[in-house]
Amino acid sequence: MEYFYTKKTAWDELLVRLLVSHDIFGPVAGEHFQEYEHLSSATVPEVIYNRPKPASPLKIFFLPVRENVTSPRKQEKQRIIIGAPACDTEALGLLDEIYLDSDFEDVFYRSRRQNTIIISSDCFDVMEHCHCTSYGIRPWDEKKADAAVAVKGDTLFIRIISEKGRKFISDTGVFTPVTDSSMVSFIDSRHRETESMLERANRLLPDYARTGSLVKESGQALWVKHSATCVSCGACTTICPTCTCFLLIDKPGFHKVKQMDACQYPGFERTAGGEDPLGELHERFRNRYMCKYVWKPAKFHSTACTGCGRCIEACIGKIDKNKLFMELAK
Length: 330
Ligand code: SF4
Ligand code: SF4
Ligand code: SF4
Prior knowledge:
- Helix content is about 35%, strand content about 20%.
- With about 325 residues, the protein is an alpha/beta fold.
- The protein has 2 domains: about 5-200, no CATH class; about 210-330, no CATH class.
- The chain has an 8-stranded mixed sheet.
- A hairpin with a 4-residue loop joins strand 2 (about 20-30) and strand 3 (about 35-40).
- It is globular, with a radius of gyration of 21 Å.
- One iron/sulfur cluster binds near residues 239, 242 and 308.
């Protein structure tokens, strides 16, 4: 791994200078959780590093809830997104496979991806529902972001991941290469500690492939039982970094509006003739699990659940998918 370093104050000053030419986003503390903010010179020093995780997934920067896809595109400033955890950057793999498919490329998505530098933040801590390692994802990014940061005291270390990240680091002129590996040995230790915490917390959770088999083999009774408190709010899908479904809505003036959709909403698969294969609540509830652990793994290379745990935290019905899986695995 190739690291550079600079003073944390020099990094903050750099970001403030870059605000002139870039829109910069990073997680800052809210009353109950941390969330991405459009940074200003006042909030740059408040960005949270190395602690999981922003309330919203990274996909909000690439898949707006609603947009007119027939209106002319505005020229957007270059964007820098700081602090995305590995469970979110990993999710971009699936979004890229779907939205950059050569036969059906989404030009809006592509332009946002090209226009954005992603600087991930290694997780040196875990939250209650984090379970990335159970699905083979490390709590630090190695391949999907452009660079990743780790802060120790008044020094900020940055790891190059992509060529875009390398150019960014070189263009800034504030970084020095790390030539003595002992300077970054603390990062390896923190990685191991975070992995151990995750493995201890999720030791009873089946892995991704086994979860797929368990979900596939489960009968209707299981889905009826576990969907009893579901209210079809769609929070679990809206907040999921890998959920990608959308509607195209015709509007007067030959406009088309793309709006994010969710399989948990009644009518998600209703046809013009009135038929609805997901008409029953338990069928919609099951659909999300089949999508994430059975159908997507059969069609795509990327993982469709990155173990961020947000769907558990967001569920108004207090449904914990991991408890469901552990019960299934008994
Ligand atoms: S299914 Fe849940 S845990 Fe998995 S990526 Fe989506 S929100 Fe995160
Ligand atoms: S079908 Fe449901 S679970 Fe699958 S991507 Fe769409 S909203 Fe998410
Ligand atoms: S968040 Fe919970 S209550 Fe809402 S649709 Fe998902 S499972 Fe149902």
